[in-house]
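REQUEST ID: PR-0412
SUBMITTED BY: lab tech R.K.
PRIORITY: routine
TASK: structure prediction, single protein chain
INPUT:
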Amino acid sequence: ASIADATIDFNENPLKNESLFLICGPTGAGKSTILDAICLALYGDTPRLSSAKSDKFAPKDNDDTINLGDPRQLLRLGATEGYASLSFEGGDGCNYEAKYAFSISRNNKLQAKKWTLCNTNNNTYYEKDKEIKAMIENVVGLDFDNFKKPTLLAQGGFTEFLKSDNKTK
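STATUS: complete
OUTPUT:
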């Protein structure tokens, strides 16, 4: 569930002038991976991991154990590092860069994740999870659960969304 390297620029055509767009493609094309990367950078969590059990497992050739819901388990087999980075404009008009990164050391040990948020207008950095979470919720205007509801509709969920009342929407 990881992409070796990709950049999607929503400020360039064909997405630049669109207020609404659809990410579509066949099964396995990477649609969920794109949305996971956005959520991971913003919220330090992904929809597919937030529903994972708390069971632990040891990655191949590694003595460390991690929860199935730990984003570090998204690291592509054979890769020693991974990250998701998102540059965006917040509801406060400021520009931000959110980044979630993780790696495996030379001795094959899982390293702690590094989650950061930078207000690029004034170079203010946030590196503590609580600060980042509060800032993201403030500038995006949504917590993780409310963000994923309209952006990640499961099969059949779109009809349910359309038929729901305005308060639910």
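NOTES: The mean pLDDT is 81.
REVIEWED BY: pending
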